[in-house]
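seq as requested:
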Amino acid sequence: MRVRIVVIHSLIALMLLLGGCAAPVAPAPGPAESGAASAGPIEMDFWFSAPTAQMEYMVAAVEEYNNLQDKVRITVVETPPSRERMATALSAGQGPDLLWYNHNVPWFFGIEAVYPLNEFVLDSEIGIAPELVFDASRQTVQYAGIIEAIPINHCPGGLLYNRAIFQEAGLSDEDAPETWAEVEALAVQLTQRDGDQVTRWGLVNGSIDWMLQEIVLSNGADWVNEDLTRYLTHPERLVEGLTWWGSLYHDKGVMPVPSGVTWAGVEAMQAGSEAFIRGDAAMSGFHGLCTAANMLDQNPELDLGGVATPLGPSADGKRTMSLGFDGIFVMADAADPLEGYLFAKWFFENKGIGLTLVSPGKVPAMRAALNDPEILSSPILGFGSVLEALENAKLRNFHVFPGRLDVRSQEPPIAEAVFLGQVAPQDAVDAFVKHAEEVFKLYEEDLREFREKHQIVW
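struct tokens:
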């Protein structure tokens, strides 16, 4: 692969400067000329990392594709364990030809790290018809007019519950909560104690950033307005959410403090999540339903059900759902971008739904999934009308705009401060709104340029 300087987020860029940078070279050739002189099949590395079932599925799918044609040979390589290491490899020209990753690519590695797929996706002969893909799926992979990846599945926000604990309490899937009030009532009912010691939590949460995201969206507010001039519409609804969420810990004693993770930091499971994985907590939320895959990878005996994030009192019955994506990126320095795209298209059309079936909690990008009985019968996706909710909800992919990581950097601290009783919810939100306004002012020109370029072309 050719050396290419990748523009990445400032924090990662600093790390790269300390480690040294490679010299830039001429741009990679277009798909027509790349690989033209190769005597044998073009070798392409595909970085992929996932729980065991997904990894096995992907390896088998790639082997099948290699046997179907002789132009390219793709090798699955487990993704390096850190974003920093991955960013260093990309900058040094030692990254993959194909990458399985999510909506964070522009922020962690730079949009310049990927090959724009517009020329392929929109091609009348080799393109992918828009009607085959959920509208939201197509929207999530488009950044400032660039189709950056082929979407395979998504991780909607929701709440997971232990069906065995529900059944033990005489509850069924029909009793899964649809509102915050119902969540609280069930958490109180299902928490167990031995004296002052909690032996089973009614509700746990694994990630502060997911929690904040879902509280806002499920309570009738939004994280960013339509023209990207304001962050956090209706801050009073976040105050309402933080007040309620904190009361579950301070007043009700049915939920532990979600020590969680920061949005741009290392991943860490908090004690409550581990309790849910062990079967010692009744519910886990508000976070991505896709966490079910990792939970089941650690404890296959869990009997999980799931619902879209229950609605808050100010939502007025209207649902807004965030939707990032997981998909296949063709990298800018790929040995043959066209062949990389053709593999991604083949996987989307032939294997995407199958991958979703071994990825509990994921939502497929392909519309045909609506007719798949296995998808519809999933207790996580079928019950709770998660797919129906996605079809009918206002969808927000707020992951794609300049300054996004900087503005979100203060979200986990305000939640932690409220949970620890260090600051009142109103004061915490006021401070955060001020921070967001400063970031938006700092990125004013970048946001204006982004708005001018950002259009849905597919």
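Residues 8 and 106 are 7 Å apart (CA to CA).
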